[in-house]
Amino acid sequence: MEMALLSLSVMAVYGPMLQLTPELNKNPVEGFSAGLIDDNDLYRWEVLIIGPPDTLYEGGVFKAHLTFPKDYPLRPPKMKFITEIWHPNVDKNGDVCISILHEPGEDKYGYEKPEERWLPIHTVETIMISVISMLADPNGDSPANVDAAKEWREDRNGEFKRKVARCVRKSQETAFE
């Protein structure tokens, strides 16, 4: 009886997290891999994102961490690039700023619709697909890195491209450290 209660409490606490890994293995998505950083911590994941083809990020191997809140899936995880990346929607600390990772509900600035923000039906796959899409098509209207957004708008094939190329090279050198 005690074992059954323990199993129920483990499922109550970790249930949504325990379902993530088998789901990822069952439905792999091209362009990224994900897994636990530490087998004893279901809330911290490491992801490797391959720069999408035909973009400035092509060939890059970017490492990031996903940190899930205890009340996941009611609230979104936070995503932070560990590998340096120059992008309008990634701040200088590596934090990713896209609608799908914003708290659910109304946007106090009126920029995002509620359905564009976090919903409990989102998964690691939908987050990664959104991040890969973000790499392919930055949102210059809602930048987390104003300097990168300005360069992307004004000098995409000059300074912006050079900085991204440096990040791609650096990511290749450090991808499997």
UniProtKB/TrEMBL annotation:
Give the matching InterPro entries. Ub_conjugating_enzyme, UBC, UBQ-conjugating_AS, UBQ-conjugating_enzyme/RWD
Question: Domain named UBC core: which ranges?
Answer: 12-173
Q: What is its EC number?
A: 2.3.2.23
GO molecular function per UniProt? ATP binding; ubiquitin conjugating enzyme activity
Q: Name one Pfam family in it.
A: UQ_con
Q: Where do the catalytic residues lie?
A: C97 (glycyl thioester intermediate)
Give the residue range of the signal peptide. Answer: 1-15
Q: Which UniProt keywords apply?
A: ATP-binding, Nucleotide-binding, Signal, Transferase, Ubl conjugation pathway
**What the protein does?**
Accepts ubiquitin from the E1 complex and catalyzes its covalent attachment to other proteins. In vitro catalyzes 'Lys-48'-, as well as 'Lys-63'-linked polyubiquitination. May be involved in degradation of muscle-specific proteins. Mediates polyubiquitination of CYP3A4.
The protein's name in its UniProt record:
Ubiquitin-conjugating enzyme E2 G1
Organism encoding this protein: Chrysolophus pictus
